[in-house]
Design a protein that fits this description.
Number of strands: 3
Largest sheet: 3 strands, antiparallel
CATH superfamily: Winged helix-like DNA-binding domain superfamily/Winged helix DNA-binding domain
Helix content: 55-70%
Length: 114
């Protein structure tokens, strides 16, 4: 039987895998980041490894959809593409949080009724 900590880790892993776009937006919302940094944070926070073949196409899609904005920055002699969230990206995160709150309140309501 799994412990509560193991179950929580599995939920984190599944959340990171299934809602990777939201997770990446959330990280970029905290502060602008570049792709490699996002890969490291996703692994640390959600226990899943997402390499360049997953992260960079996602960042391109988020940028195409107007949810993030990328800009090139010279750092330590290397060019890095730094991504920052746009107002539309913030709206999506807020909508996602509102949906989660709604689902939790419905669950709490039925928990009290049943």
């Amino acid at each position: 039987m799994s412990t509560k900590a193991e179950l929580l880790q599995e939920v984190r892993r599944r959340f990171g895998k299934d809602f990777l776009d939201i997770c990446v937006l959330r990280l970029i919302h905290i502060r602008p980041r570049w792709g490699y940094e996002i890969m490291v944070e996703v692994e640390k926070m959600y226990g899943i490894k997402k390499g360049p073949s997953a992260i960079y196409p996602l960042l391109d899609l988020l940028e195409t959809d107007g949810l993030v904005r990328g800009r090139w920055k010279l750092e330590g002699g290397r060019k890095k593409r730094i991504y920052e969230i746009t107002p539309s990206g913030i709206e999506l995160i807020d909508s996602f949080y509102d949906f989660l709150k709604e689902q939790l309140s419905i669950f709490d309501y039925y928990k009290k009724v049943l």
